[in-house]
Amino acid sequence: MVTAPTVTAPVTTAAAGPVPADAPRAALVARARIRAEPDGRGATALPVLSGAGPLAPRRTRDADGGARVVLVGSMAAPLGGDRLALAVEVADGAALTVTSAAATISLPGPGPAHYDVELTVGEGARLDWCPEPVVAAAGSHLLLHTRITLAAGARLRYREEQILGRHHDWARAAGPGRLTSRLTVRRAGRLLLDQRTDLGPGAPGWDGPAVLGGHRATGQLLTVGHPPPAPPRWPEAGDAALLTLPDPDARLLIAAAPDALALRRVLDGD
What is the residue extent of each domain of the chain? Predict the structure, then answer.
């Protein structure tokens, strides 16, 4: 099911006519939902698969006995001023993998863009979250907040990758955009992780030795209820560390690397 996005635009009483080239762009407000639950035959059904605006979830071939959804970007977004939201719920006993067809590119506009992601995983359920990177294009500012709620017996593999600027942004000395993100994870009501990062122009010390140290890509792999990821084996590609969270069943691999390819190799253990 695809629902139309809600668009907010300036109100005017003037007569209809051509839109001026310099007219302010209307902000886009869009929310998508995915719900996975057991189908009673040993597989996973998707009773809710709704998209809006640039968020177009599509079911593909099932993987590992569970459902698989690819997020397809149906339009350029997020642009400054946009407000996007995605809610994913994996019911008890279901299994879901979520990927994306391409990177999410944050583009400049009037004010920061907002992207809120809610991931809920039930008892005995599994979620593999591995979309393509978020890229902060020159002049943009994205506020990204991901909230993850896990039942006691839930399993999670969560990969997050953030790229500061596109190649041609750096080639023309425009630099990257700004990416302000927060990741909050709770399991059985207990807080496992509340992480905040602020990278890009305007963020204090973001490119200094204590933060990115000259790297342009950063990311992390969070595993809960899975065997921990292997310690990083590619130190010449960047900097990485494997951390144990308050729950002994949870591990966090964090990395910074010179580019997206090197970052992916560190997180994948290549």
Answer: 29-210
Q: Which of 115, 98, 102, 124 is nearest to 35 (CA)?
A: 98
- Judged against a pLDDT cut of 50, whether residue 1 lies above it is answered with no
pLDDT one-digit tens code per residue, 185-239:
999 999 999 999 999 999 888 888 878 888 889 999 999 999 877 766 655 556 8
CA angle 90/76/52 to nearest 5° reads: 40
Q: If DSSP states are collapsed to H, E and C, what string results for 149-202?
A: EECCCCEEEEEEEEEECCHHHHHCCCCCCEEEEEEEEEECCEEEEEEEEEECCC
Residue 14 in this model has a pLDDT that exceeds 50: no
Q: Which contacts (CB < 8 Å, 24+ apart) does range 62-67 have?
A: 63/97, 64/95, 64/97, 65/95, 66/36, 66/94, 66/95, 66/96, 66/97, 66/126, 67/36, 67/43, 67/94, 67/95, 67/96, 67/97
pTM of the shown model = 0.86
Tokens 């071939």 sit at which residue? 61
